[in-house]
Each structure stands twice: as structure tokens, then as C-alpha cells.
Amino acid sequence: MRLVVDASVVVAALVDGGPVGRWAESALSSGLAAAPHLMLVEAANILRRAALSGDVSADTAALAHNDLLSFRVALFPYSPFASRVWELGANVTAYDAWYIALAESLDAPLATLDLRLSRAPGVRCEFMAGPAG
Predict the structure, then answer these.
(1) pLDDT per residue over 105-126, tens digit each?
(2) What pLDDT digit, counting tens, does each position of 3-25 carry?
(3) DSSP letters of the chain?
(4) Distances (CA, A) of 46 to 32, 37, 51, 89, 122
(5) For residues 57 and 68, what is the distance between their CA atoms, to the nearest angstrom?
(6) At the N or C end, where does the chain have fewer CB atoms within 10 A?
């Protein structure tokens, strides 16, 4: 099964040892992962913020970043999805819309920890939402 994953799921799999991280690891192992090209930099920024806030150590963040760079995921460019991203812009950010547009195009569920995305009007993909953290 193909699965579109957002940065929150990837980071949870990399650094969260609790139920959310276990769910993320399970979701990632359930199929072929796909994501917009920006997922890597979004994940890197989440790791950076977590280290700066003390949620994870700098060493943990650095190791997770190294693991991120070897993460097996099919990355997709923006241009083929630009029109649909723009259509969704009234209801979600362009970043989130890119994940949604990709999931719609691949007819794949979008794995996310962001539950509000599944309630956004106009979205035509299924969601695989993680447990509340």
C-alpha cells in the first residue's frame, strides 16, 4: 500500500518512544512512503525546534536528522500539484495542501498527527490519524 506521510509522523517515528512514536513507526512500515519534497526540511525544522526547546537533546536531534537523511521515501516536486494546492488554500496552508494534493493524486491515505487536516473542507483523501500525543 502507498502511504503519504507528513513531517510530524516521520519525526515521531524518529524520536518519540511512546505510543505516538510506536504508531508512527507502524504507519511507516505499512506501505511505500511518499511525501512532498519539502517534508525533509519540515522534519529537520521540527527536530531543530525540539532541540532548542529541550524536548529532545541536541545529540538525539542530530542522530534523528542523520536518520532522516537515509529515510526511504518517494519525494515529489511541487509543480504537478500546484493547481490543487492553490484550490485548497482557503482551508489549509500551502504546505499542508501539498501533502493532501499528493495523497489525492496517488489515491493514498495521508498519515498525520494533525487531526484538523482531516476536517478541512474540500479534501478528497483518506486520513490515517495518529493517537493524541
Answers:
(1) 999 999 999 989 989 999 999 9
(2) 999 999 999 999 999 999 999 99
(3) -EEEE-HHHHHHHHH--SHHHHHHHHHHHTSEEEEETTHHHHHHHHHHHHHHHTSS-HHHHHHHHHHHHT---EEE-SGGGHHHHHHHTTTS-HHHHHHHHHHHHHT--EEES-GGGGG-TT--S-EEEPPP-
(4) 23, 15, 9, 23, 27
(5) 16
(6) N
- What cell numbers appear for 111 in the block? 498519515
Chain center to CA of 81: 16
Cβ count within 10 A of residue 37: 11
Domain ranges of the chain: 2-129
Fold of 2-129: Rossmann fold (3.40.50)
Place of cell 512500515: 29
Predicted TM-score (pTM) of the model is: 0.93
